[in-house]
Structures are given as structure tokens and as C-alpha cells.
Design goal:
The structure holds two protein chains of two kinds.
Chain A (H helix, E strand, L loop, with lengths): L2 E3 L4 E5 L4 E3 L2 E3 L5 E8 L6 E7 L7 E2 L2 E6 L4 E6 L8 E9 L6 E2 L3 E6 L1
Parallel strand pairs in A: 2-12
Antiparallel strand pairs in A: 1-4, 3-9, 5-6, 5-10, 7-8, 8-9, 10-11, 10-12
Chain B lengths: L4 E3 L2 E4 L5 E6 L6 E7 L5 E8 L2 E4 L8 E5 L5 E5 L8 E8 L9 E2 L3 E5 L1
Parallel strand pairs in B: 2-11
Antiparallel strand pairs in B: 1-3, 3-8, 4-5, 4-9, 5-6, 7-8, 9-10, 9-11
The chains are: A mainly beta, B mainly beta.
Chain lengths: 114, 115
């Protein structure tokens, strides 16, 4: 079975500091995609960053970057220079090539302290 | 529209009533997905559409749940004889194609509360 695990229900970070959210997954597939989504109180899921498993280079999007360790099946999200607007639920999701449904973790609630 | 639109935003109904939830995907997106997010949980896949067809309905929790899509656009998720355990946020997403390299774009969801 394919699973996604987020072991940190809640994290806090001081404004302007850096925080890392962890995510591990389990699959026997070799070709897949990984995503981090942000869900603010407005409920809309916003794509933060994505990583193709066949790419060794870690994806980056401005202040957001990932540490993708394929052998360890780990996909952590690093947020640099944290801002108050980063406060939200963050979900890690997984999708194998050729399938159509994302498998989500249970989320990490990030609090940003002023 | 510019994004995925869902209506209503909130729905409160009595146990045993039927409800319809609507999703209007991004124009040009052929794939449409329904997820359910229960309190404190991640998202649970329900069903997806490619065009007007639903190749896999295995995520629907019971036969009280059904969905349809018309004109390759708007989709309706119907829950009959609602139960309290149906209370959740129902999220809709769309993508150009049902492939892993096509990110899914989500709507704001419908919060369903069953009294």
C-alpha cells in the first residue's frame, strides 16, 4: 500500500527564521511525483512545490525548497525567512505516474510567531 | 473562471436529507477530482472524472454517494440520506489531464455539517 506520513502535527517558527517540515512515503514505484500543498484558513489547497522522482536535483520555489532523499523515501520542505502569511496547514502528497489520485499525509500545522 | 469554483461554501442540513455539492473546474481542464477532508485528517480521494466518464468510483464511501459530470465541465457530488459521519469539507480539484505531472488545482471546498 502507498502511504504518506507526516510525523509533526504542529510546528512553530519565529518570523524570519527557517523551519523544516518532514514527510516520508512508502511505495514500490520508481516513477512518481511529490507535492507540498498549503491550506490556509480559507480552505483552498495551494500548490507550494513539486518534485519529480526521476530528478535528482531538489526543487526550489523562492523561499521554499525540498530535501528529496529517494532511497530514504523522504521529502521534507524547508521554508526560509518565514513570514506571517506562511501560517497554514501543510500537506505532503504523492502521486505515481499513470494514476490519478493523490495520497495525502495528515498535515502539519505551522504557526509563525511575530 | 480563473480557478476552481465550488458551491455552496457551507451547507448545514438535517440527518436524512439529500445534498448536492457543485464544482466548476478551470476552463480546459479535462480531469476533475473529488476529495473529502474530515476534521483533523488529510484528504481522502473519492472519485475522478476524465471528461464525463468516471473510470474509478472505488473511493466513494457508500452507495449513498454519487457524482456526475456534464459537458466535460461542471460536476455534482450528491449524498443521499445524509448521516452525521458525512460531515466534512468536500474539496474539488481539476487538472489538464489525469497524470502525475499535471498538478491538481483545488477549490475552496464545501463545508458540510449534518445535524
Amino acid at each position: 500500500a502507498q502511504t504518506v506520513t507526516q510525523s509533526q502535527p504542529e510546528m512553530s517558527v519565529q518570523e524570519a527564521e527557517t523551519v523544516t517540515l518532514s514527510c516520508t512515503y512508502d511505495t514500490s514505484e520508481s516513477d512518481y511525483y511529490l507535492f507540498w500543498y498549503k491550506q490556509p484558513p480559507s480552505r483552498q489547497m495551494i500548490l507550494v512545490i513539486r518534485q519529480e522522482a526521476y530528478k535528482q536535483q531538489n526543487a526550489t520555489e523562492n523561499r521554499f525548497s525540498v530535501n528529496f532523499q529517494k532511497a530514504a523515501k523522504s521529502f521534507s520542505l524547508k521554508i526560509s525567512d518565514s513570514q506571517l502569511g506562511d501560517a497554514a496547514m501543510y500537506f505532503c502528497a504523492f502521486d505515481t505516474s499513470g494514476t490519478y489520485k493523490y495520497i495525502f499525509g495528515t498535515g502539519t500545522r505551522l504557526k509563525v510567531l511575530a | 473562471g480563473a480557478g476552481v469554483s465550488q458551491s455552496p461554501s457551507n451547507k448545514v442540513t438535517e440527518k436524512g436529507k439529500d445534498v448536492e455539492l457543485r464544482c466548476d473546474p478551470i476552463s480546459g481542464h479535462t480531469a476533475l477530482y473529488w476529495y473529502r477532508q474530515s476534521l483533523g485528517q488529510g484528504l481522502e480521494f473519492l472519485i475522478y472524472f476524465q471528461g464525463n466518464s468516471a473510470p474509478d468510483k472505488s473511493g466513494l464511501p457508500s452507495d449513498r454517494f454519487s457524482a456526475e459530470r456534464t459537458g466535460g465541465s461542471v460536476s455534482t457530488l450528491t449524498i443521499q440520506r445524509t448521516q452525521q459521519e458525512d460531515s466534512a469539507v468536500y474539496l474539488c480539484a481539476s487538472s489538464f489531464f489525469p497524470r502525475g505531472d499535471q498538478p491538481q488545482h483545488f477549490g475552496d471546498g464545501t463545508r458540510l455539517s449534518i445535524l
